[in-house]
Specification:
Elements (H helix, E strand, L loop, with lengths): L1 H12 L1 H37 L4 E6 L1 H5 L15 H12 L6 E10 L17 H4 L3 E6 L2 H5 L6 E6 L11 E5 H7 L6 E5 L7 E12 L21 E5 H6 L14 E7 L3 H14 L6 E4 L1 H43 L3 H9 L4 H39 L7 H27 L10 H4 L1 H15 L1
Parallel strand pairs: 3-8, 5-7
Antiparallel strand pairs: 1-9, 1-10, 2-3, 2-9, 4-7, 6-7
Pfam families: FtsX, MacB_PCD
Keywords: Cell membrane, Membrane, Transmembrane, Transmembrane helix
Organism: Bifidobacterium magnum
């Protein structure tokens, strides 16, 4: 009781310092939870989450190759990869890893009609006999192929998404912009024209309206040179709709030749790296084409804000720990070093150094543990939402982070308490028998003057 009572009384005599110690401990704890949460999430995203990906791999023209493309010259279709090209590519990797699979995406330009007009672009008035059409019909065989869409990621905001299991009706998804321009709604029927033969038309139903969730790739947005290249003029459909209307053909001419894109599927990032390595070794990818993974590109883009935030959090942690630790050390020393007379009087009264040292430790424990505990509660309950907002990334609640902060906080609190206790442990008992004048002549002189003035 003596130790508890004296330590609490000592804090009461220095309330401001005690409150400041508590506040600094709270801020350091909350900052530590936030920083460690973001850094832990970044490490998790770059390793466990990344390793869990099943990357898609595509082989598409490079930017330099696309630079020479003319939307009104059908001779460009000679650059399309054929089934023969893809067979060579698949054979170069199939024997190395039996887990390599594939799915299909195909597209052709299609002609507009009175029921649907393309959104205008710089070359919107170009004759469709030259461009094959001012719209593009993009088909997918599976949802994995759709995930690798070169125009970007879409979400259906009205109606139904593509149904890859159904062969009952021919339908398409249209963009919000195209729907608004033409007054299209879910269920509307539109007429499209064959890119090779203007006299051949077919009808499809609008099953849904979509919007893009990411920025347009270069050349596929408002900067498109032709209407059919503007991604808002792209109609999405299943392979069934594409093939049923005679567009999946091997004897097409001009723009009637389908732009075939085989999307390879790999089991994990390591499998994708092996896939790329084997293709480069076999030299079966034509010049002017690049191997890439839309899955990995999209994932790395999604965690980019988290990676940037983790770097900022690391700097913040260094500052919080160094500045906060220095402030607490200064306050601990201020609360223990100037108390020579108090220590000496206590020892003369028979108080042992052990009990006195424990008192000094408790004077540090109280404010630091209170601040540390409050920081754990505040930081633990707000870390998920606060860190998600700071890093623009949905955070995972992780107990390992909290335990790390718990042990760091306990270790630092114990260190500060030990520093306070050492003031007592290293107190020289010989000072008890030194006169005040010998200890501090100035202090003795000031006390003498104060006594003389009091008597006067």
């Amino acid at each position: 009781m003596f130790v508890l009572r004296n330590s609490w009384a000592a804090l009461g005599r220095h309330k401001v310092r005690a409150v400041l110690m508590c506040l600094v401990a709270l801020l350091v704890t909350v900052g530590s939870i936030y920083g460690c949460t973001v850094i832990h999430q970044k490490d998790y995203a770059e390793h466990q989450s990344y390793d869990a990906l099943t990357p898609a791999a595509v082989i598409r023209p490079t930017a330099a190759t696309l630079k020479d493309r003319s939307a009104s010259d059908s001779a460009w279709t000679k650059h399309y990869l054929s089934w023969e090209d893809y067979n060579k590519i698949y054979q170069a990797t199939a024997s190395k890893d039996s887990q390599i699979g594939y799915t299909i995406a195909e597209s052709v330009p299609v002609r507009q009609s009175d029921s649907v007009k393309a959104i205008t672009t710089a070359d919107a008035d170009t004759n469709e006999n030259k461009t094959g059409g001012n719209l593009t019909l993009q088909s997918f065989y599976t949802d994995q192929a759709m995930d690798a869409n070169e125009y970007g990621t879409i979400k259906v905001v009205e109606g139904k998404d593509l149904n890859f299991e159904s062969n009952e009706e021919t339908s398409v998804l249209v963009s919000r912009e195209l729907a608004n321009k033409n007054g299209l709604k879910v269920g509307s029927e539109i007429t499209l024209g064959n890119p090779q033969k203007a006299s051949e038309t077919f009808k499809v139903k609008v099953s849904g309206i979509y919007e893009y969730t990411d920025a347009a790739p270069t050349g596929f947005g408002a900067d498109a040179k032709a209407a059919k290249d503007n991604r808002d003029n792209v109609l999405y459909c299943t392979y069934f709709t594409f093939a049923t209307n005679g567009l999946d053909t091997t004897d097409g001419k001009g723009w009637g030749i389908p732009d075939l894109n085989i999307v390879f599927t790999t089991p994990n990032p390591a499998g994708y790296d092996t896939f790329v390595k084997e293709l480069r070794k076999a030299k079966v990818v034509p010049d002017g084409y690049l191997i890439s993974s839309p899955t990995i590109i999209k994932y790395e883009k999604s965690i980019a804000p988290l990676v940037a935030s983790s770097r900022n959090m690391l700097i913040m942690l260094v500052l919080v720990w160094s500045i906060g630790g220095l402030l607490l050390l200064i306050m601990v020393l201020m609360g223990s070093c100037p108390r020579r007379d108090e220590i000496g009087n206590a020892l003369l009264l028979g108080v042992t150094k052990a009990r006195l040292g424990w008192q000094f430790m408790l004077e540090v424990f109280y404010p630091l543990l209170i601040g540390w505990g409050l920081g754990l509660i505040i930081g633990g309950t707000t870390a998920h939402s606060a860190c998600s907002a700071l890093a623009s990334y949905s955070m995972r609640t992780n107990g390992a982070v909290m335990w790390k902060v718990v042990w760091i906080g306990l270790g630092f609190t114990l260190l500060m308490a030990i520093i306070a206790m050492l003031r007592v442990a290293f107190f020289n008992t010989n000072e008890l028998f030194v006169s005040p004048f010998e200890r501090d002549p100035l202090e003795h002189e000031h006390r003498h003057e104060f006594t003389a003035e009091s008597e006067h």
